[in-house]
């Protein structure tokens, strides 16, 4: 599983919080929308 992460996205933020709380090792891929 990989998290495609846009820092301004509230949904990605929820997933990042969940990953941190569960102490999971999920790779993230930043998305550049510029």
How would you classify the helix and strand content by structural class? alpha+beta
Give the C-alpha Rg. 10 Å
Strand residues, percent: 15-25%
What is the count of distinct domains? Answer: 1
Strand order of the largest sheet: 1-2
Instruction: Give the averaged pLDDT, no decimals.
Output: 94
- What overall form do the CA principal axes indicate? flat
User: Are there runs of 5+ residues with pLDDT below 50, and where?
Assistant: none
User: What level of helicity do the residues show?
Assistant: 25-40%
Described by strand count, sense and barrel closure, the largest sheet is:
2 strands, parallel
Number of helical regions: 1
Number of strands: 2
The rounded distance between the terminal residues' Cα atoms is 25 Å
SSE pattern, N- to C-terminal: EHE
Organism: marine metagenome
Protein name: GST N-terminal domain-containing protein
Pfam family, one: GST_N_3
InterPro entries: Glutathione_S-Trfase_N, Thioredoxin-like_sf
Question: Can you walk me through this structure?
Answer:
- By secondary structure, the protein is α+β, with helices and mostly antiparallel strands.
- Helix 1 links the parallel strand 1 and strand 2 (28-30).
- The radius of gyration is 10 Å and the shape is flat.
- Helices cover 35% and strands 18% of the residues.
- The model has no long low-confidence stretch (mean pLDDT 94).
- It has 1 helix and 2 strands; from the N terminus they run βαβ.
- The longest helix has 12 residues, at 10-21.
- 0% of the residues are buried.
- The chain has one domain.
- The protein has one helix at 10-21; strands at 3-5, 28-30.
- Strands 1-2 form a two-stranded parallel sheet.
